[in-house]
Design a protein that fits this description.
This protein has 198 residues and is mostly helical. It has helices at residues 12-25, 29-43, 55-99, 111-128, 136-140, 157-170.
Length: 198
């Protein structure tokens, strides 16, 4: 089926320019005309504007917008890295360092910690147990002085609390010295509540 052919009247210079364009694009006259119509429909360009759309400046604007977007994206990523990622990484690394003992660290407690804990336990027993339950050698021995607050090893506090709890449960209340209400110098063992009579 052949389509109907229509003619378009134009002046000679426009026709010559049209023929030249057809040769440049290697199209026939009808193909070039159809392509031109499609071009103006798609681009919405105004064929009456002699310069047509300025593709160079449009491309420059688009490039500038992309560069600005790229800078903002990189700035956002750097801000997230500074605010969130680096602190999280530092915490993870610190946790790894703390959870792995150093090669030079001794296993268990140091001598100073063992001495402080032993002396504290001696003072605790002397202060909390009835003298009749203690040996004369222990009662007559010299009692070590407690360390000053700035010299106390705070890492031993959980062990001290646990030992006090064990003493309060292990010994009968009549074997223990009742704690004084205003005794704030060092923690005393609270006597356990008596077991219910059955």
């Amino acid at each position: 089926m052949t389509s109907k052919v229509k003619t378009i009247a134009t002046d000679e210079p426009a026709y010559d320019a049209f023929r030249q364009l057809a040769k440049e694009y290697q199209l026939s006259n009808p193909e070039l005309l159809a392509a031109m119509v499609q071009y103006f429909r798609v681009t919405k360009a105004d064929p009456r504007a002699p310069t047509g759309p300025d593709l160079t400046s449009s491309l420059a604007k688009l490039t500038a917008k992309l560069a600005d977007l790229d800078k903002r994206t990189i700035g956002f990523i750097r801000e997230q890295e500074k605010t969130y990622l680096k602190p999280i990484l530092a915490q993870v690394q610190a946790h790894q360092v703390l959870s792995v003992p150093a090669a030079s660290a001794p296993a268990g407690m140091s001598e100073g910690q063992v001495k402080e804990l032993s002396e504290w336990f001696m003072r605790l027993i002397r202060r909390t147990m009835q003298p009749t339950q203690l040996t004369p050698a222990f009662l007559n021995g010299s009692l070590p002085q407690p360390p000053t607050k700035d010299k106390t090893d705070l890492s031993l506090m959980p062990i001290k609390r646990q030992l006090m709890a064990v003493l309060s449960v292990a010994f009968r209340p009549e074997l223990q010295v009742p704690s004084k209400p205003n005794d704030q110098a060092s923690p005393a063992v609270a006597p356990p509540s008596p077991a219910p009579q059955s």
